[in-house]
Amino acid sequence: MKKKPIILGIETSCDETAVSIIKDTGDHIPKILANVVSSQDKVHKKYGGVVPELAARSHLEKIDIITKKVLKISKIKISQIDAVAATAGPGLIVCLSVGFNFAKALAAALGKPLIAVNHLEGHALSPKLQTKLKYPYLLLLISGGHTQYLSVNGLGRYKRLGTTIDDALGEAFDKTAKILGIRFPGGPKIEIYAKKGNPNRYPLPKPIFNRGGCNLSFAGLKTAIVKVSRTLKTKQDKYDLAASFQKTILEILFKKTKLAINEFKKINKGNQFIIAGGVASNNKIREVLKKVSCDYEMHAIFPNKEFCTDNAAMIAIAGLEKFKKGNFDNLDFSVKPRWPLDPKAAFLKGAGVKL
Ligand code: KG4
Ligand code: ZN
Questions:
Q1: What is the pTM of this model?
Q2: Å from CA of 144 to ligand 1 middle
Q3: Residue among 117, 143, 175 whose CB has most ligand 1 atoms within 8 A, to mutate
Q4: From the CB of 278, is ligand 1 less than 6 Å away?
Q5: What confidence score (pLDDT) does residue 1 get?
Q6: Distance between CA atoms of 87 and 120, rounded to whole angstroms?
Q7: Are residues 114 and 44 in the same domain?
Q8: Which end of the chain is more exposed for a tag (fewer CB within 10 A), N or C?
Q9: Nearest C-alpha to atom 10 of ligand 1 is from which residue?
Q10: Can you tell me which atom of ligand 1 is nearest the CA of 285?
Q11: What pLDDT, in 10s, does the model give residues 312-348?
């Protein structure tokens, strides 16, 4: 019987140092033997955002410790690894370099293939850690650096249907949180605040809402929130603003997703709709996207929350898919801070840059 490949995945594109080991199971979903994520929230908290040099230093300090830890958890000897897959972009160049150079050294020392993974492809394939997917499928990628609707036509084959033309959705959550005095990364806290607030208290703008197509925009929303924030007096006012912000986001996503489904159906027959990336952990967003999917006969699939935010299991699964196709990279492969999934789509700020 042919040996089932074991892949080591490494993720260091931003502020999470993550390593995972997965094993192929043939026809079934792969087995996750170990999956460790070390967040740097504490390192960046006081700066209100990720400081690249500090992030890179922290990756350097932890990468080998975490790799040893996943080997121990998975009870796998390093010589049993069949390939080393690591995020090579998009992301912060100093952070990408730490993980990817570590992967190069490991692959060279073991004499095993090196696989350069696009971080966004990791998010796109992350539901494969739990369920079977059939190409083509519709993807909404909502993270701290990206907001895109894509038709996923196969491994490495993406057609962008829509994107943010300014801020990413996670960035909008984090900026709103910062205005409300919540420390970085504030996205998850906004969801908690919103639960206690009145979503109809503050009417907020929905930029390019009535423009055709499924591009999105969130920068104008931030400006409006700054204005309202000057009038806030009580904690309840803050809850109400968080709730009004989240409600506005839900309305934008509801409408734009309808348009994206229409676009997708014009070119494809698939009915799976994957919602991936850190913001996909938001329960209200999940509810609304389930509803719109149901209305338009699409099947909404959300990765478990641990696979929505940055992790290395998603890098390992993308690596495994590439491994099966013999899609390896040379040791002179350079990291790519900008690496859009659909290289033919016009460049827009939100489309391929992580920060
Ligand atoms: O995918 P991810 O871990 O990193 C990137 O690739 O960017 O996404 C992180 C983003 C942050 O902006 C964070 O605030 C947001 O996801 N986020 C949330 C929630 N959980 C994480 N935003 C809204 N509601 C949440 N529950
Ligand atoms: Zn990410």
A1: 0.93
A2: 5
A3: 143
A4: yes
A5: 63
A6: 9
A7: yes
A8: N
A9: 144
A10: 24
A11: 999 999 999 999 999 999 999 999 999 999 999 987 7
| Domain assignment of residue 89, given as a range | 6-128+307-324
Q: Let me know whether 109 and 166 are in one domain.
A: no
317 & 192 share domain: no
Q: Ligand 1: does its nearest atom lie under 6 Å from the Cβ of 89?
A: no
Ligand 1 within 6 A of CB of 170: yes
Q: Does residue 183 lie in a domain region?
A: yes
Residues at Cβ < 5 Å from ligand 2 ion: 143, 310
Is residue 158 assigned to a domain? yes
Per the CB < 8 A criterion, the answer to whether 180 and 238 are in contact is yes
* Residue 308 structure tokens: 């929505």
Give the count of beta carbons closer than 10 Å to the beta carbon of residue 48: 15
Q: Strand, coil or helix: what is 43?
A: helix
- The model's pLDDT over 285-308, given as tens digits with 9 standing for 90+, comes to 999 999 999 999 999 999 999 999
Asked if residue 262 belongs to a domain, the reply is yes
Rounded to whole angstroms, the Cα distance separating 108 from 298 reads 44
User: Where does the pLDDT of residue 121 fall: very low under 50, low under 70, confident under 90, or very high at 90 and above?
Assistant: very high
Domain count, the chain: 2
Q: So what's the pLDDT on residue 184?
A: 76
CA-nearest residue for atom 14, ligand 1, is: 187
Per-residue pLDDT reduced to its tens digit, 182-229: 987 789 999 999 999 999 999 999 999 888 899 999 999 999 999 999
Whether residue 278 sits in one domain with residue 312: no
Say if residue 185 is in the same domain as residue 279: yes
